[in-house]
Amino acid sequence: MEKVVSGIRPTGNLHLGNYFGAVKSFVKMQDNYDCLFFVADWHSLTTHPKPEDIRRSAKTVMAEYLACGIDPSKASIYVQSDVKEVLELYLYFNMNAYLGELERVTSFKEKVRKQPDNVNAGLLTYPTLMAADILMHKADKVPVGKDQEQNMEMARLFARRFNRIYGVEYFKEPESFHFSDKAVKIPGLDGSGKMGKSEGNCIYLCDDEKTITKKVMKAVTDQGPTEPNQPKPEVIQNLFTIMEVVSTKDTLDYFNDKWNTCEIRYGDMKKQLASDICALLSPIRERILDVSADDAFLEKVAREGAERARESAAKTIREVREIIGFKS
Ligand code: TRP
Fold first, then answer.
1. For a pocket test of ligand 1, which of 111, 130, 136, 180 has the largest count of ligand atoms closer than 8 A to its C-beta?
2. How far apart are CA 156 and CA 48, in angstroms?
3. Which pTM does this prediction carry?
4. Cα-based angle 136, 83, 110 (whole degrees, multiple of 5)
5. Each residue of 143-169: pLDDT tens digit?
6. What DSSP string describes 202-257?
7. Contact, 174 vs 139, CB < 8 A?
8. Does the beta carbon of 133 sit less than 6 angstroms from any atom of ligand 1?
């Protein structure tokens, strides 16, 4: 079976955009691939999070992914910092990674621009740690967003370079699996484009019904259509796009007709949308609450995930040491 590896940044709660993107594709992949998903808590140190937040945010993402349907009997989930082997591979890759190419990575350049007072070496070598995460398990496919493509290219480059330097055919180049190509992009509620974490833009999977309804009712709209069948402006299309994924076809057709005949009432549409989002999310929210409260279960999943990850990691490290010339 082909192997799939992906890392999840522990950046707070999952929202509807994550759900229809990464989360759904992970859940689907666990049936057809040998999957290893991990919480990238070492990567998150580039921003110097508070000690008390680190374990908690790892726990939050794990609980939310499990609540959405990641099944530990099919896929393994582990916390990156529980599998120390990756650090050794990170070191080896760093020895073959050059300052110039690391500095040219777009996300690094962006960070330099946005946080000039925290341009640390971890940020610079983010791509080598990510390559180690992936190559350590000899992943065939890596589900990632489009924004990760440059990091994926670096991972392939480091694999090729290692093979070339040591004259081996050891690492294979991992393929990107862009879930953004297949998934619907969920727009935000404030008309600014993609759903993101800013205020008023985002519906979290753990939001309660009151919060969801309030957020949807406040979504940005316009004056309404003035001519039959006119194209929809972006803010309105956004609501329809969300409706496409959370509501039935009948509901969608109904509001499309109302739009086309200029009879649409945004208040009605939002009420319907809110209620359909609540119907989708309320079982998920309940599972999030249950799983989050079950420390024993979370610890078991993380422990078993780490054990499995360590198996392939330890094998890789043994072989790599041999190739590099260290006696194992
Ligand atoms: N860089 C990824 C992101 O920001 C997270 C990540 C870390 C990752 N290591 C990985 C993804 C390995 C895939 C494979 O989303």
1. 130
2. 28
3. 0.94
4. 70
5. 999 999 999 999 999 999 999 999 999
6. --BTT--HHHHHHHHHT----S---STTPPPPHHHHHHHHHHHHHS-HHHHHHHHH
7. yes
8. yes
